[in-house]
Amino acid sequence: MSATIAKQAPGLNSSSAVMALLHMRTFIALFLVLIFFSFAAPNFLSTANMVIMSKHVALNAFLAIGMTFVIITGGIDLSVGSIVGLCGMVAGGLIMNGLNLGPIGYTVYFNVIEVVLITLAVGVLIGALNGFLITRLNVAPFIATLGTLYVARGLALLSSDGRTFPNLVGNAELGTTGFPFLGSGLILGIPVSIWLLVIIGCAAAYIAMRTPLGRFIYAVGGNERAAALSGVRVNRVKMFVYMFSGFCAAIVGLIISSELVAAHPATGESFELNAIAAAVLGGTSMSGGRGRIGGTIVGAFVIGILSDGLVMMGVSSFWQIVIKGLVIIAAVVVDQFQRRLQQKLALQQQAAIGG
């Protein structure tokens, strides 16, 4: 037995070393893009650019955190970009025009906190619609969220006939001022969006690693039928992840409209691609059952730095889309290679012990 183990040890050691590198691939990618753009792009590491880039990364990270939970369960959420646009329009419309109660001829205006809560509720409700379609009507996640992508984008356009809600500074007499602080304000010199990312990221990581709900999410993605037979309420878990994804998208819609002090119905187009790329690059398996919130956030940094660095280099936006697509493909290929290597390593270890 000892001879067999000794014989297999070099192979096991080399495979283990490769596995260690694969587990660290997101950090390696982050290091490489930082080094590359620090030389290729002028002023890339300047303080002003770091602040701007961190805000861009935060937007992508919010969506990617919600997407991570969805993908871990074996699903996908293509509607997050449209939810961003719709929620931005909801916030802009409430600040600009209030809520018109036509039958009684009265308009209700909400303060900023109420606007934020209503907007978050809209995001959660769209996520609940996705969950209902998937769990109750057995619609495939790809089709269900593709449908809500169009519905949410259409509602965003209808809310203003395709026009922008400009100058969302509010009206002091109506108590609607203070909205720009969410996107442009600083707390202890750090943008509000970064503080929100820390809070949401820590909460999501805690749920994933320390709560029964987190274990259920991984169980559903690993083997849905086995999870159901073990007593996991699969439909409730799926409802939660899609509602949480909608919640994260609503936050992004609020931050963007607040930072721009304007809401446009086309906001958020193709944001879902960045979210998926960040999640997959961070180690989340598209087949479900595996992923880490920390890895996703690092993946969001890679995608954000890549996007901003290419802009600073003057690379065409068309090429940027091509490069992001290649990043997604490469991340999936590496993930599949990691899965096969894990299976091979497990078989080698069993053979070594059995020998």
UniProtKB/TrEMBL annotation:
CDD domains: TM_PBP1_transp_AraH_like. It comes from the Bacteria. The keyword Transmembrane applies. Keywords: Cell inner membrane, Cell membrane, Membrane, Transmembrane, Transmembrane helix, Transport. GO terms for molecular function: transmembrane transporter activity. Its main location: membrane. The chain crosses the membrane at residues 20-45, 57-76, 82-101, 108-133, 139-158, 179-208, 239-256, 317-334. InterPro entries: ABC_transp_permease (IPR001851). It is found in: Cell membrane. This is Sugar ABC transporter permease.
